Amino acid sequence: MKSSHEPLNYHPEKLKRELKPFYIGADDKDIEEMLKFLGLKSLEDLYSHIDDSVKMASVPMPKHLSYEELIANVNEVARKNKIKTSFLGDGLPNYKVTDVVGPICNIRGLTTAYTPYQPERSQGTLQTLWIYQSLMSQLTGFEAINASLYDRSTCLYESMNCALRLVKDSTTIIVSNTLYPGDIEVIETHAKETGMKILRVPVNPQSGKIDIPSLTRLLNTTPQVAAVAFPQVNNLGNLESVDEIVDLCSTNNIKSIAIIDPMLIGKGGLKAPVKFGTRMQGADMVVAEGQHLAIGPNFGGPGLGIFGIRYNEQDKLSIRSTAGRYVGKTQDLKGRECKALILSTREQHIRREKATSNICSNQSFIASVAGASILARGDEGFETSLNISRSHAEKASEALTAFEGVELKFKGSAFFNEFTLKLPVSSNEFIHKASAAGIQVGVDVSHRHHEIKEDGLLLISFNDTQTDADVEKLISFFETQFEKTKKGTPCPKIPSTMMRVEAPEIPKLDSKDIIDYYTRLGKQNLSPDDGIYPLGSCTMKYNPHINDYAASLPGFTNVHPEAPVEDIQGCLEILYEIQEQFKAITGLPGVVTQSVAGAQGELVGIKMFQAYHRDRGEGDQRNVIIIPRSAHGTNPATATMAGYESKVVDGQVFGIYAVDALPSGEMNLNQIKEFLKTDGHRVAGVMVTNPNTAGIFETGFKEMSELIHAAGGLVYMDGANMNAVAGLVNLDKLGVDAVHNNLHKTWTIPHGGGGPGDAIVGVSHRLLDFIPGVQVVKKDGKYDITRASKSCGSFHRHFGNFAHKIRAYTYIKALGCDGVRKMSQVAVLSARYLFKKLSASYPTLPGEAQSSPRMHEFILTLSPEVFKKIETSGTPKANTIARIGKLFLDFGFHAPTVAFPEQYGLMIEPTETYSKKELDQFVSVVETILKLVNDHPEVLKTVPHFTPIDRVDEVQANKSPVLSEKITAILPKIIPDRVDAEKLRNSTPGDLCEQILEAHKNSV
Ligand SMILES: Cc1ncc(COP(=O)(O)O)c(C=O)c1O
Known about the structure:
The protein is α/β, with parallel strands linked by helices. About 35% of the residues lie in helices and about 15% in strands.
């Protein structure tokens, strides 16, 4: 390897799965034996039931790169970015990344684990999120902080929806024009075609702050207002009069939504939102971006949407109208204190179209890292960072305003560490000159407000990564451009009412202790590194280390998304390549790279549908989305969130029209045909998962698409299950108009204990003009940014979870045209092999679909006799499947997906990661489980037996939620495993049965 490459921080040859061709576990012999067992001759035969007319003959992309070539490639691309002395901030500030972050990002038990739906095997993730929630509570003063939402913009939209639910008969949210433009664009994109009205309150051109008389007037004259959303630090750097705004909200009996920067409210910083208002009544909701608490700019993502709401004696109910996940403190059946996800009856996987949001994967791992980083800083670390940032700003504002024509634009308005300068020249030209001199000098805010029509406005940000020498460099650059002719203006004093009084009392812990603690937590989870992680529909496959290596190259992590285009060529190359890769993989002509999770990809798709229909003058008429009943909860939740409210009026269905499944497991195409006959003109589109959630390919998909298109509708394919068909089925030929590819499933980015995910959306020619966000184009070897002509708006303030695009790019480069197909083929082979083996002992679902070929996953159930036996032994049928899931934990495996999409089903997805030997071992475990519950059904009453805790009493956990505790230097206790999961996996299933019976006896 060339010395110019960043060294690897791991040894690939020592990792069991890292150097396997295409990260596939089965070797040629395994593949041959499995095919033989299935009576097939070749991998292609696995797809013989799919019509040739929709197949992809080959993937139009280059062949795979070797490991060494891959290392060289990602280093070369990273080097194309130019990292310069930077004064960029503008809502994505840059603070020192604490020294715990790198090591914590390498704890595979935390990075690669799934969402902690099985609390007994996920105390690691749950505890990290608990610490995050608690510390954020300490910092903001809000009693309830969720863990977590995508980013500030979408978090703001969720809070606005929450306000509409909380304020009876309301329709309108007043939003300050002084919020970051990216955030405003995102909320306006979301609100289109929904019942939400957004009114904007102007900026006062003199103060550069919200114009309070205009706000008062709006409040006095507008009916049905639910909330005012306002920033503490605004998009010109000025500190808003937060007390006055919260008072106005209180007087008008509406909700106040404060958008803050969590870094700035640490010790020595600005007032915490819980104290806003002259009576210190506090804001009602808090929204923030938390990316910079955890990681560097990373070209804008992954971010961290911080959301908080009051939860106290006066208000215990508002929390139930919020979006996102909460971790609660609770007890297991033996009274051990533990953590579990709570309040989930608000969420899409339970409430479907009535959920408070469509969010599923969130930004969990960034929340975990933010928690650890806050501990590494402690009060004193925050204070030091804030002092440095503030003193840089003080020094620079005085020094820079000494130059001829350079002024503080808003002289009377206080700021903390960002301010707007008025320059005597065009800011845009000045920025490019500074860039040539090695300085990213700030952001051009000249055209940010129509109320302030002036060129030469520059927003400059200061932080603790800048040195005194950097500030000197900035001043010297100004000296090259302007004459020093006057005395500089001293920085305006910040009124004491705007500052924090009491410290949040965040302990500062030793970095080594933090890393040790989080390492121990990582051991409480499972990772796909260890063995089969059979969660159906979640595609828990191996996440290559080299992807993380590529994403952590400083050439990528230190890039700010608002740097001049000439400085970000490497990042743009990644985005361009991702566009090309997904065009090749899906067969579709367009790609959206903004969406940060599958559910957001769905929303992107449906919002494009709406833009398309609006453009054709059919926006109002098309008010139905067709969705099969077996769809993932995000599909109906997305349709609702997009504005398709489900109701029946005079026998006519509005919103979601649900389609049943046939006995074969496929959707009932005749039902769709019948509906189209009468209501085709009202259909906006369909959302169909393919292969569907039963693991069966929808062979009627193409016909369905043709029918929908003939009726003027559009086709969304939920691509969560692309691992079965990538590179083998051409989605364009299938008639797909939009499809999301969850990068945290098929495309190997780690799931992070619940996120960040990411989703690339493929788009048909019908929707090309409506693509949201930006498109990267290549001209004369240079990359640039454009927008679609009728863009439906924007779903991310920048470029989505960019660091994840690097991971997916690296993975796809490692697969190449040959590997993409083989990965899917072996995933299907492994699933079909397991299905045939296990269906010899287990009944399968759908009940009459035994002969329907399974793709990447399948559903097992129990016979009526076994259910009966179990019920007689004391476990009700309704609980049986969940308890069987817990029994998998006793064997050292994660549970399959339980009770979805079939109430009595266990959905198993092995992926291509594991060898035949590992698959056979898993078969023997699953068979042993059946034998065990058949012979000793009583064990299900006490499962699981070897995890750190017993089963959690979820009913109790939800009754009176406990959402935080004061974090001190002594971190919450970690309960050790009773038996290590690795030891369990290495025991013979027979031995384990004995031990389970023994443990059961001891626990009754
Ligand atoms: C079929 C299906 N659709 C959509 C989603 C939502 O994806 P995300 O969690 O990335 O939002 C999932 C996630 O589990 C899924 O399995």
